[in-house]
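Data availability (excerpt). The following record was deposited with the supplementary files.
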Amino acid sequence: MKAELLSIVPNPVLAVYAHPDDADVACGGTLKKWIDEGSDVHVVICTKGEKGTKDPDADIKEVAAKRRSEVEEAAAILGFSALHFLNIDDGEIVNDETLRADIVEIVRSVKPEVVLAPDPTAVFFSDHYFNHRDHREIGWAVLDAVYPACGLPKYYPDRGKAHVVSAVMLSGTLAPDVFVDITGTVEKKVTAVLSHKSQISGDEESVRDAIEHMAKDAGGKCGKAFAEGFRMVGSLGVF
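Predicted structure:
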């Protein structure tokens, strides 16, 4: 039995991720597909990415500036309407009132139909990788901000008019139940991810192979050449 394919294009869309390269890696093909089909896509980047280096002598301000430049290049490739920077230090994301209020304010400003974020329940991937704490913390913060806070006016009344999000789509999940066909946009995803040169170890062909391998695996679950899978919470009325 084939998994369900998302059959409409939500608009507008808000993607909330921890690090500068996360959205491109997690759902760049989906975001590009929706943009090409008329969607207005905003991306929130929570950290500065300043600790994303293996060089002990690196200047963190220079690393942060480099990573911001890289994400701006990738955003231009994919066609994002706007980037929103929260400028939290790497490794210091905390699902607290400050972060939730900031997310609520952006959601209420953008008024997205759907919000994308990391699945915070996905921790262990096989026996060689476990999920980054920043990913888990931002995933929980997004869920807590979207429901019930964003839709109820007494939550953070100074952060804009209440807005109800129709659905949250969680990437990097161990339990995908909806897929997006990215056959026509996987190449743009690869190009965007390759913009994050400071984060690439090894050659570009290896990065391309890794991205295509994951997209082929997801595609095989829904009958498409390439896809991205998500855990959907809520309903877009698409099935």
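Summary of structural features: The chain is about 35% helix and 20% strand.
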